[in-house]
Design brief:
- The complex is a heterodimer of chains A (141) and B (136).
- With 141 residues, chain A is of the alpha+beta class.
- Chain A has helices spanning 3-6, 20-36, 41-62, 104-111; strands spanning 12-17, 69-76, 80-87, 114-120, 124-132.
- Chain A has 4 helices and 5 strands, in the order αβααββαββ.
- Chain A has a 5-stranded antiparallel β-sheet, with helices on one face.
- The longest helix of chain A is centred in the middle third of the chain and has 22 residues, at 41-62.
- Chain B has 136 residues and is α+β, with helices and mostly antiparallel strands.
- Chain B is built from 4 helices and 8 strands.
- In chain B, the strands form 2 sheets. In chain B, strands 1-7-8-4-3-2 form a 6-stranded mixed β-sheet. A two-stranded antiparallel ribbon of chain B has the order 5-6.
- Chain B is globular.
- The interface between A and B is medium-sized, with 22 and 21 residues.
- Strand 1 of chain A pairs antiparallel with strand 2 (16-21) of chain B, so a sheet runs across the interface.
């Protein structure tokens, strides 16, 4: 978690109860963010999908049946967008929930330019993603 | 127009909060969050519009009165109601924010739309509490 101390101030910081309906709030905020910064639509959709996965992980795995918060910080730079999704629950990857295809982390890794995961059982988990602000050209198949 | 000020900070600790760097992101982000929360609080469409109008006014006027560089708003959704807690604000900022929200020919919009309006102070900072509800 040492990176957090050196991170610049977030442009947007959301703190929300980790419940399914709040994932939609985060998705809406990302849309507003993309519109305001005039980000390419493909970048916005990649960001929204990756952030949805990160928030869904928090909702499903971080707190079991307890109440808890998910924390989203967004930092725009001239060339990239950094996003952190954090919780104070039991940490990502320690879930006993075996249901679901398990595509979340690979999908986030594919969508983001960089992906960093901190996981501790003491202080929860933190997923840090970085996205280029310019959409890469679609590769011909 | 004078908004009642109490010197004790409210016992309300909003479960949802958003902090936005003062600038062009405040309005778009705040209105999206408020729209979602107002809909979830089961406010009818006219009160949902009122909530978004209050959010727009806060976005436009609060940056001049906040403590620091961020506009911070906490939310607590109740039974057909939504509470905004705006702050920390500078001393006198709660009252000034409400006064700044006056529109010529219309009057003070926040005051007219809010069911409850108060300024809470913890000594150093102020917090503007705005509650919108639907009586049914």
């Amino acid at each position: 978690m040492g990176l957090q101390a050196t991170q610049p101030h977030a442009a947007v910081h959301l703190s929300l109860p980790a419940v399914p309906e709040n994932v939609a709030v985060v998705r809406h905020v990302m849309l507003a963010f993309g519109d305001t910064l005039d980000l390419p639509r493909r970048v916005v959709e990649d960001v929204r999908l990756a952030v949805t996965e990160a928030c869904t992980n928090v909702v499903r795995h971080a707190y079991d049946d307890d109440d808890g918060l998910m924390d989203i910080q967004i930092r725009p730079y001239p060339d990239r967008l950094d996003i952190e999704v954090a919780d104070t629950g039991r940490g990502i990857g320690t879930s006993t929930d075996r249901e679901g295809p398990g595509f979340g982390l690979p999908m986030m890794a594919t969508l983001a330019d960089t992906l960093e995961i901190d996981r501790t059982t003491e202080s929860g988990s933190r997923v840090a993603m970085s996205f280029s602000r310019s959409a890469a050209p679609v590769k011909p198949t | 127009m004078s908004v009642g000020t109490t010197s004790e900070q409210s016992a309300v600790t909003p479960s949802t909060s958003v902090s936005i760097a003062a600038g062009p992101l405040v309005g778009p982000v705040l209105r999206r969050v408020v729209g979602m929360l107002a809909a979830r609080a089961d406010l009818p469409l006219d009160r949902l519009d009122d909530a978004i109008l209050v959010a727009d006014l806060i976005a436009a006027r609060a940056p001049a009165h906040v403590r620091g560089d961020d506009v911070r708003v906490g939310f607590e959704a109740g039974d057909r109601s939504l509470l905004f807690v705006v702050g920390p604000l500078r001393p006198g900022g709660g009252q000034a924010l409400v006064v700044d929200a006056a529109v010529p020919g219309v009057g003070n919009v926040i005051e007219q739309l809010a069911d409850d309006l108060s300024v809470q102070s913890d000594g150093a900072d102020e917090y503007l509490h705005v509650r919108l509800a639907y009586a049914g």
